[in-house]
Specification:
With 437 residues, this protein is of the alpha/beta class. The protein has two domains: 2-157 and 325-390, Periplasmic binding protein-like II (D-Maltodextrin-Binding Protein, domain 2, 3-Layer(aba) Sandwich), CATH 3.40.190; 158-323 and 396-435, Periplasmic binding protein-like II (D-Maltodextrin-Binding Protein, domain 2, 3-Layer(aba) Sandwich), CATH 3.40.190.10. 42% of the residues lie in helices and 14% in strands. It comes from Kitasatospora terrestris.
Length: 437
Amino acid sequence: MNRKIAAVAAIATVLVASACSSSGSSGDSKQATLSTDGKGKKITVWLMDDAQKGWPGVVEAAKAEFKEKTGADVDIQWQTWTNYTTKLDTALLSGNAPDMLEVGNTQAAKYIEAGSFVDLTGVKGQFENSDKWLDSLAASGQSGDGTKTYAVPYYAGARVLIYRKDLFEAAGVKEAPKTLGELKDALTKVKAANASTPNFSALYLPGQNWYTAASFGAGTFGVKGIVAKKDGDKWTGTLTDPKFIEGVKAWNDLQKEFSVGGTTTDEATQDALMAKGNIAAIVGAGWEVGSVTDPKAGDPSLKDKLATIALPGAAAGSTTPAFLGGSDLAVPAKAANAGLGATFLQIYTNTKQQTELAKFAIPNAKNLVAAYKAASPANKATGDAAEGATWFIPNSPLWSGADETALKNAFGAIAAGGDPAAELKKVQDTVVKDLNG
């Protein structure tokens, strides 16, 4: 309870301070304009060092195009995620905010609610591919009711099925499963072929990995409003919807039949466990392949033995909805050069830059994912997942780590034998109460 009070108090501080500024709350936030009047000026941009390490050429190309179009220079100030929110809070409440910045998509709602970002709704149509932005990533940059846009999708990551080709083939599974039914048949064969291996999981599904469990729920319920949805000014729960429960039961059947992941752990250690050799498949982010095969913490001999596919859905050609994480880009309401910041954002996320970024990460629009998949065979699975239906957490500033802990415990209780409907009803009451303050 003290944690929740502290969280609400922290957000309230941001809201009060923002309300005292010219930007107000998200309902009357400063409207964005696109400016090309930059001669003799220099804007400041905060980007995570992921870009510096992964796609510095994209950044330099955007800077050059911006200079040509506006006459202004760009000072990129590289950031790291460690303590970033503290630094961001301070900057947004002061007169030292950058002109454009990166924010994690799970962090955006807090700042949107506080009126810390300019309202981009009026210029959204001038951003290339804005009608094709990845669904879940786009939603994270919107107001709670989805009617206004305050942050633009940047790049994404998706969860997929990572599996041992050698173990599947040795068990007689020659082709990747295309439906959940085929996956279950394949896992049955893999389990039987490795019956003598201690603590073997044909598919590692630890009980508290709530993201995967909820993805199964989304497969039958739908991807909009997972966990809770906004109904006017209030949040209402969706965890007890019969269709969501149906999907959760399908997940629970798989974890009982094929996993020895236990009921009190989540996915945090699954990469290291898979590297030890007694796990045939996991559900994780595409980059976890590198973690499994890491020379220091994993087993590099597995490099050519791992494959990835989008987690199959119930019907042929469909996929189980993936949780989509990633980053957004926004213009602070207190930026000294907000109009130029919005123009740099427009250029940095245009088709040219995003197509180049697609060589390194999932781009921000569905029509550009093909370029990402073409860049490497290893990108196909995460690309397929991003192109399919994806889901996201409730877009509220009151969503917190405590809500995730409650969900972990609820799904862990289901995995331990608890009634899905009863456990989901209990956690729904908790989460909805938190979301409604």
